[in-house]
Amino acid sequence: MATEAHKFQVGIFVIAATAIAIGGLIWLGASHYFEHNVYAVTYFAESVQGLEPGAAVKYRGVPAGRVEIIRVAPDGDLIEVVMSIDPKIAKLFASDPSLRAQLQLSGITGLRYVEINRHSGEALEQAPPLSFEPPYPLIPSTRSSVKVVQQALEDVYAKIMALDLEGISADARATLQAANALLRNEDVKALLANLTRLSESAQRTAANLAKITSEVDVAPMLGNLTRASADAQALFADLRSGESGGRLREALSAFDRTAETTQAIVAQVHATVQRLNRAVTNLHELSEELRRQPSRLLFAAPPPAPHPEDGRPQ
Q1: pTM (2 decimals)?
Q2: Window from 32-36, 85-89, 204-208, 238-242 with minimum mean pLDDT
Q3: Which of 34, 128, 190, 296 suits 141 as a labelling partner, its CA being 20 to 30 A distant?
């Protein structure tokens, strides 16, 4: 009886554990149907190798949902990735046009996840154009960091391949040959020998100058220059603010006054000379008139009275 009771208890325990396990699996599976997630879609123009359904979707590193469907887009070229997003985070997407979906590696396992983050500059222009209407709200994509590195390497490789390596090698070879021929030229050897002799001559000249200057006592010359500089500074200071400077300024002022007086005298002499010239001209005209008509000296009318301002006839 004890054995039968023990078997019965074990059977009840196994049945209950199995029922609980099945119920848990059913609850976990059905919980997805009761979630109120928001669906969004993005399209990649590159391979999504390593991205699987159920992979994480993160918003700036924070878990925000998961990948639901991965398939080829209706145009047969792009890869369509449908994602379920937490409604609280999905509200941020509509008001932020700088958000872009990007593939990221998850550690060193080779698996990938979708990272949604803010971008700027060139990354905003990398989303592939669509020729169809997406089934869910669209989150534009940008190239993954692996794709960016790959594209940069491809650009570098293309630029290297575009170089004319054969032409560069031929030019370098021709340059080296021309340099070798130039060095073997006898004129160049003679020029180098002349340069060597010139250098030796310059060294001897420098040695002779050093010997000559070493025998000259430069100290008295420097002392004389120092005293001359001090005397010149004292003279300039005296001229600027001393008694000699005052006398010099007074002499210059007297010279300026004399020059102004001389200018006035010259102006007066010039005016006198002009009046004398007019008087001589008038006498010459009168003598000419009397020479032609002597009778006018006795019978001519008296001359008009002079103008009150400048002496001219009215």
Answers
A1: 0.43
A2: 32-36
A3: 34
